[in-house]
Design brief:
The complex is a heterodimer.
Chain A (H helix, E strand, L loop, with lengths): L1 H9 L7 H24 L1 H10 L15 H13 L5 H5 L26 H5 L3 H9 L31 H9 L8 H8 L6 H4 L13 H30 L1 H24 L4
Chain B lengths: L1 E5 L4 E4 L11 H15 L10 E7 L2 E7 L30 H9 L6 H14 L5 H6 L1 H26 L13
Parallel strand pairs in B: 1-4
Antiparallel strand pairs in B: 1-2, 3-4
The chains are: A mainly alpha, B alpha+beta.
């Protein structure tokens, strides 16, 4: 009770130096951004909440990360736009306030952390084979996993070199689904999908996403796109696992073809 | 008559004339103290800021030197030494007169960040910081924060100075 009272009273303290003043202004700017977005994306909820909670302050009290309105907004974003990390709701103390958009790496992020060996072991076999295709895993990793003739896939010659993304994509899209989604699965492994949700990792997080309309619109778009990529890549992986011998052979053929074409393109004189 | 100096941990004889008084006046006593301090500064560095008390024990004049607690500082510079003028006999003291003068002459100024923060805080506490008001003031907040980013250099310098390790004093501090 006393702690609450002290916390409440501390809201009445005026900033006494320039640093404190700037800190308060940053908070006022951030709260303004949250409320502007609340009103823009969820106008009906915003009007209702504002009418019901007239006595609530628009800036968080000392000790709190968010106001009531901001928490409502974050919950609505999580429900309708894109996921908000759980920690935002679990520990909303003052120092945990997100002045930018908190983005939780999705997709294959755990694989790219330190000590990722366990994470790779936990992955589906199809993903592991893609790591083998890309040279990140050796054939020994699969010792004892396959019987003949399936183990013959490790005798397939895999071309090494850079693949031109546009060539690879075109070659993939010429095939029937789900093989046509191979380039999306590879893009996920390369963290090159063009969506923050699949490309960010815990070691290389996205920390500069601002709470403004333009950024939120882009994030909404990217989240939808990342869900589609994730779904299609998963379809491909399932297809690969259905008949590893034949399907992985098809993958290698497609991969080699793309590498050779990319190489040929590189050596062609520029017109 | 002989004369002797006693400190906390040492005792040694000194020439009688060092403690001799021309007369009983306060000025003569001050001159004697100054003379003693100068003569003994090389042996008892703390004497420059110490309390001197005189007593007689038999035929001896005893000068008791009681060091005063104080800040670390520098010895009086010898003539010709190029110490800055703000180095005094004891302690590193800065001559603040020019600073005070400059401050008195400076025009009144409230950093815009502080002014705007007070204004908004006041409105918030009085229930006047409405949603619309908070939106309307956003451009001004942005402007003030951008402007004060440059002003923050002085604070930044203070922070850096506070965080720096101590450097060697340009003169030997008293007591070393």
């Amino acid at each position: 009770m006393i702690a609450d009272l002290r916390q409440w009273l501390s809201a009445f303290l005026l900033p006494m130096n320039k640093s404190q003043a700037e800190e308060f202004l940053h908070l006022a700017r951030s709260s303004g951004q949250y409320l502007d977005l609340y009103q823009h994306y969820f106008p009906a909820d915003f009007r209702r909440s504002l009418a019901r909670n007239r006595r609530h302050w628009l800036l968080p009290l000392p000790g709190n990360a968010y106001t009531l309105f901001e928490l409502q907004f974050l919950q609505l974003v999580d429900k309708h736009l894109f996921p908000i990390p759980e920690y935002v709701f679990e520990d909303p103390c003052e120092e945990n306030r997100c002045f930018g958009v908190p983005i939780e790496p999705n997709g294959l992020a755990p694989v790219f952390e330190d000590g990722s060996a366990d994470a790779i072991c936990d992955m589906a076999l199809g993903w592991q084979l893609l790591f083998y295709l890309g040279g990140q895993l050796q054939a020994e990793f699969f010792d004892g996993m396959f019987e003949p003739p399936t183990e013959g896939i490790f005798d397939l010659e895999i071309e090494w070199g850079q693949v031109d993304p546009s060539v690879f994509r075109r070659r993939c899209e010429e095939r029937k689904t789900p093989l046509s989604y191979l380039y999306l699965a590879i893009a996920m492994l390369d963290r090159d999908t063009g969506t923050v949700w699949l490309d960010a990792t815990y070691e290389l997080p996205v920390e500069d996403a601002r709470w403004d309309r333009e950024t939120v619109d882009a994030l909404v778009e990217q989240f939808v796109e990342s869900e589609e990529i994730w779904e299609r890549a998963t379809q491909f992986v399932r297809w690969l696992e259905e008949d590893i011998l034949h399907h992985f052979t098809e993958v290698v053929v497609l991969w080699n073809q793309s590498i050779r074409e990319s190489r040929a393109r590189e050596t062609q004189p520029h017109r | 008559m002989t004369a002797k100096v006693k400190t906390n941990n040492q005792e040694f004889p000194i020439p009688d004339e060092w403690v001799a008084l021309a007369n009983d006046s306060q000025e003569a006593k001050n001159q004697r103290d100054t003379r003693l301090r100068r003569a003994l500064a090389g042996y008892i560095p703390a004497i420059t800021n110490a309390q001197l008390s005189y007593s007689t024990e038999g035929d001896e004049t005893i000068v008791r030197v009681t060091p005063q607690l104080g800040t670390k500082g520098v010895e009086e510079p010898e003539a010709g030494q190029s110490l800055p003028s703000f180095f005094f006999l004891s302690g590193l003291r800065c001559d603040l007169a020019p600073v005070h003068e400059a401050l008195r002459k400076a025009p009144p100024y409230l950093p815009p960040a502080l002014g705007l923060a007070w204004q908004l805080k006041w409105e918030m506490l009085n229930g006047r910081l409405t949603f619309q008001r908070l939106l309307d003031v956003q451009p001004r907040i942005q402007q003030v924060l951008e402007e004060s980013a440059g002003e923050g250099r002085v604070e930044h310098i203070h922070e850096r100075l506070k965080g720096l390790p101590p450097l060697k004093c340009p003169a030997v501090p008293i007591g070393c």
